[in-house]
Amino acid sequence: MPASPRPLACLFLLTSAALAMTAACASVDSGAMTRIVDSWKGVSVEQAKAQWGPPKTVQAVPGGTAYVWTDEVPVARPPGSGPRDAGLEPPQRLAQCQRKLVAGPDGTVTRGEWSGDGCCVQSLLGQCAKLARRTTGAG
């Protein structure tokens, strides 16, 4: 008797859904994080430090100084993936999002970049709003 096509169809649908979610996440990630980094260009890095807190590392780079912030976001486990016995809980996996702003000798941000698998999680949770540069109105 030939194998039922149903399991293959389910596998195909699940794989397609996973790929679609990954693509959507990458799109949200890229657009949001690029806008955030771009919002800091031409601004004093001191404003970024005041809004984001102290950077995790500071590095001398050609043409200035790189300020690096790293966030770690716990990754949710899929339902049913936890332990099946009374053993130890597996360690929590963390996703990272690294943001880097490079400031010239005068302290003005000239460029920036981001990387990591946790940036999308931050985007989807609405964390990006607090990362974009806040503008102050002239009064």
Tell how many strands the DSSP assignment holds: 4
- Our estimate of the beta-strand percent is 15-25%
Low-pLDDT stretches are 10-28
Helix residue percentage: 25-40%
Order of helices and strands: HHEEEEH
End-to-end Cα distance, whole Å, is 80 Å
What oligomerization state is this entry in?
single chain
Write the layout of secondary structure elements.
Layout lengths: L4 H35 L5 H8 L4 E5 L2 E11 L19 E10 L5 E7 L3 H6 L15
Structural account:
This protein has a domain at 43-74 and 93-130. It has helices at residues 5-39, 45-52, 119-124; strands spanning 57-61, 64-74, 94-103, 109-115. It has 139 residues and is of the alpha+beta class. It is 35% helix and 24% strand. It comes from Cupriavidus agavae. Residues 1-26 form the signal peptide. This is Lipoprotein. Keywords: Signal.
How would you concisely characterize the structure shown here?
This protein has 139 residues and is α+β, with helices and mostly antiparallel strands.
Q: What tags apply to this protein structure?
A:
single chain; 139 residues; alpha+beta; four-stranded antiparallel beta sheet; 3 helices; 4 strands; 35% helix
